[in-house]
Design goal:
584 residues, alpha/beta, Rossmann fold, Helicase, Ruva Protein, domain 3, Zinc Finger, Delta Prime, domain 3, 23 helices, 10 strands, elongated
Length: 584
């Protein structure tokens, strides 16, 4: 039984039959008409886009005995020889993947100088980027000054691997991916010729799975025809392609865009427990998220989905912000299932990151009473020069502080009888501006003066300015990548900000977010970039510190870390080495 596969049987016989490459076809036809064909061509582009087929058509056109408007007649002896695969003296095809050495190129050069009866002899070198460097060097002279009536066509899917010295000696044509509608039209014509009945939606599913490659689409159609016969349905196409869970992918995207973490995790584990391919679920989710991104941007052209799927996506994007969709595309686009395609963990982590980080950046803060805001800001400000520290300012918990460089003892001492704090007998280090050593700590703190009120107002204004500019600050750092993470993505997880003198404290609701930010800020360049961005956004320079919120996953912040005295000591380089509970 002698039969040919579809992509060979229905290979174009005229240049105008090449699908989706109109600019290339037009230029080559004009070159044939005017008799100005080049001695060397470089055809670049993805697989299955017609590079080799176009090279064969060019060889047939330049040797045709009755050329009509740049097209081969397909009736003369030369055209018949090419169509029947007997044109050994017209077309010489070489696979550079298996003939990549310098000896193969030398053998080719010997053939080049042999005469032939045809008008032109065309040498087609497929996957030319696979040649070795010595082989390319041997080919250079032949490409630059070949014998008369010799044409070289170099075809490659990776033009960046071809030396520039070779490219400069060729006319380059870039083949593009074939549009989805063009593939569907070609498949419809093929089905009509083969007598295959098929649903229109099935053809669109095949074209979308082919990814711009007509050869892949024709192979898939033939597989369907062999497996199921005629007629062919959308369900059969999805079953063969492994995209029967397209609904699952759309359902997962729905959970991502609505921030429903629990439902999304249940879906991922359900697909994994059923033994289905998680890579198909991942690929489908990324494609649907991309479609949602395009719809949100106002692009409504057909993307190969059914009308029901498009309607569902349009309904979702109307109630979802562009930032959340973009976060989902970025997060799921970075998932790599090549190492372990059976584990649902990468998809679970991507779901958590895409939803949790998005939720943190969209939570609206509840309005607070103005008096409470004033009290909150006042409690966050360090004492002014007019205020003196009293024993009441010392926390009940006793904190052991490591000796600060430059001093011979601890700068703070406590008394079990709650007596006033004694002045240390040794010289203590200088305190930050706004804090006075406790040498006169016996008198109660007076009410804040006008200068203190001004400071409070300044901090309040700075805090308000920071909150106002926070979103733009995060956006400005969205493309700045540190050692491992993008700063903008990490800052989205920051749930609260607090200005304390010359320091900006970023508070996170989860220890992992804080640890990631600490890792990035360990790089001086990254820290400098963050602090410079804060300066540009707020207008004031701050040093960045990190902390957890009171309702963080690992429990509330320790009271001692909120003490003015401990924070002042930590600012000067000290660190907490011991902490005890309240004494009874």
């Amino acid at each position: 039984m002698n039969s040919q596969v579809f992509y060979r049987k229905w290979r174009p016989k005229r240049l105008e039959e090449v699908v989706g490459q109109e600019p290339v076809v037009q230029t080559l036809k004009q070159a044939v008409i005017q008799g100005r064909t080049a001695h060397a061509y470089l055809f670049c582009g993805p697989r299955g886009t017609g590079k080799t087929s176009t090279a064969r058509l060019l060889a047939k056109a330049v040797n045709c005995l009755d050329v009509l408007e740049g097209e081969p007649c397909n009736a003369c002896s030369m055209c018949q020889a090419v169509n029947e695969g007997k044109a050994l003296g017209i077309i010489i095809e070489i696979d550079a993947a298996s003939h990549r050495g310098i000896d193969d190129i030398r053998a080719l050069q010997e053939k080049v100088f042999i005469s032939q009866s045809a008008r032109y002899r065309v040498y087609i070198i497929d996957e030319v980027h696979m040649l070795t460097e010595p082989a390319f060097n041997a080919l250079l002279k032949t490409l630059e000054e070949p014998p008369p009536y010799k044409i070289f066509v170099l075809a490659t899917t990776e033009p960046q691997k071809v030396p520039l010295t070779v490219i400069s000696r060729c006319q380059r044509f870039d083949f593009r991916r074939i549009p989805l509608d063009a593939i569907v039209g070609r498949l419809e014509r093929l089905c009509l010729e083969e007598g295959i009945k098929v649903e229109a939606e099935a053809l669109r599913a095949i074209a979308r799975a082919a990814g711009g490659s007509l050869r892949d689409a024709e192979n898939i159609l033939e597989q369907l025809a062999v497996s199921y016969g005629s007629p062919l349905s959308l369900a059969q196409a999805r079953s063969l392609l492994g995209i029967g869970d397209d609904e699952k992918a759309l359902e997962l995207v729905t959970y991502i865009m609505k921030g429903q973490i629990k439902e999304g995790l249940i879906l991922i584990n359900q697909v994994a427990s059923e033994g289905k391919d998680l890579r198909q679920l991942h690929r489908g989710a990324v494609e649907h998220l991309r479609a949602a991104l395009l719809l949100k941007a106002g692009i409504t052209e057909s993307m190969g989905y059914t009308s029901d799927t498009v309607a569902t996506l349009e309904s979702l994007v109307r109630s979802t912000s562009m930032e959340r969709i973009l976060q989902g595309v970025k997060t799921f686009g970075q998932v790599n299932l090549r190492q372990d395609s059976a584990s649902p963990l990468p998809l679970e982590l991507a779901l958590l990151e895409a939803t949790s980080d998005s939720q943190n950046s969209y939570v609206e803060k509840a309005p607070m009473d103005k008096k409470m805001v004033g009290l909150e800001k006042r409690s966050e400000v360090e004492p002014t020069p007019q205020r003196r520290i009293t024993p009441l300012d010392v926390p009940k918990k006793r904190v052991g502080v490591e000796e600060i460089p430059g001093s011979s003892g601890s700068p703070f001492q406590s008394n079990s009888n709650d007596s006033p704090v004694q002045e240390p007998s040794v010289k203590t280090p200088a305190f930050p501006q706004g804090v006075i050593p406790s040498s006169q700590a016996q008198s109660p703190a007076p009410e804040p003066s006008m200068d203190s009120a001004s400071n409070l107002t300044g901090v309040s204004d700075a805090q308000a300015q920071l909150e106002k500019q926070w979103d733009s600050l995060v956006k400005s750092l969205s493309r700045y990548k540190g050692k491992r993470f993008f700063l903008g993505a990490l800052l989205k997880a920051c749930k609260a900000r607090e200005i304390n003198l010359d320091r900006l404290i970023l508070k996170f609701g989860h220890p992992s977010h804080k640890e990631r930010m600490e890792e990035e800020l360990g790089d001086p360049q990254t820290r400098r970039a963050l602090e410079e961005s804060i300066l540009k956004s707020v207008g004031t320079s701050y040093k960045v510190d990190l902390a957890l919120t009171d309702d963080a996953v690992n429990g509330p912040t320790k009271p001692s870390a909120q003490s003015h005295l401990v924070r002042a000591a930590l600012a000067m380089g000290a660190r907490i080495i011991e902490e005890e509970g309240e004494q009874t």
